[in-house]
Amino acid sequence: MAGEEKTEKPTPQRLKKAREEGQVARSPEVTKAIVFAAVALLLLFAFRAAVEQAFALLAWIFTLAEQPVSISLIIKAFWVSLSVAAVIIAPILILTTFASLAGDAAQVGLHPSWKAASPKPEKINPINGFKQIFSGKMLSTFVVNLVKTFLVGMILYSVLSRYAQELLAVPRADMGSALDISLDIFASTMLWSVILLIVVSIADYVIQHRAWMKQVMMTKTEVKRENKENYGDPKIKKARKELTEVDTDSERMFKNLSFCQMLLADGGRVLGLYYNPSFNPDPLVLVMATGSTAERVVTAAENSGMRVTRDSGLMRELWPVCRIEQAVGPSHRDFVVDLLNKT
């Protein structure tokens, strides 16, 4: 119905369809936080080794100044520099790639949406692209990035202020002391930056998830249509279920009838009774039926030669207190036992 409000929670099928179309609750801030935390942790442990390798490379390059310049020397310096840079940078690139994949997988799972990745005319429409630049989502992203930049700047200012005396002493310190001070500053900056990004990513994910849930909400008409497509018309389903239950109950009832020793019948109602002291000290009600089913039970009992007793008074007393496949109450036990023991 046109104009109908989306007030119903999305069904599993609706969520699956949205995922296939690439509509998922995804926050880029979560991925950024995971990548930044992973790289910060790697650099924290490899910072000293990376700096030492870089300084060793510079020292080696300075020694080349004493040698005559040649093509082979230039090529050698190039490959040595490239290998050192690869050793330093390659782990960061590999870790960044895997951390980025892990960040996306943590939010949307390992189920890529090829439909979302397929080219669509509206994706390359410059008008749509221009609209997205000034959309509310882009504005919120700009505000988030602005806030993050400001807070990271505050963190850096706070850390540098705390280590101001140590920084002033760096020019007069040896290499080991300078590295220790640099590592302390780096660790403090990374720690507070990671905490900041985690808080921002959690807040942004909550916002994105709420916006996504609002987007995939359904109208009552859509829910009814989907249920009808999946499970059929509710009225037909209910009628089919009732017929199945009736057939199952009737089948069980006629199976129980074969164990009964006597059938009490009156006024369109029947009770099938069974008594075996070695099995149960009280008589059991194995059959209980009314209407047309009761008539069929009486006919089946008479055809099998079972004793059928018609007693309206006893039926009025037993019917309200009897339950199918349960024992006769103690107030009527002795009378029913005597009745069943009569030949």
UniProtKB/TrEMBL annotation:
GO terms for cellular component: plasma membrane. SUPFAM superfamilies: EscU C-terminal domain-like. One of its GO terms (biological process) is protein secretion. It comes from the Bacteria. Pfam families: Bac_export_2 (PF01312). The keyword Transmembrane helix applies. Residues 1-11 have a biased composition (Basic and acidic residues). InterPro entries: T3SS_substrate_exporter, T3SS_substrate_exporter_C. Keywords: Cell projection, Cilium, Flagellum, Membrane, Transmembrane, Transmembrane helix. The chain crosses the membrane at residues 33-51, 71-95, 139-160, 185-207. Residues 1-22 are annotated as: Disordered. Belongs to the type III secretion exporter family. This is Flagellar biosynthetic protein FlhB/type III secretion protein U.
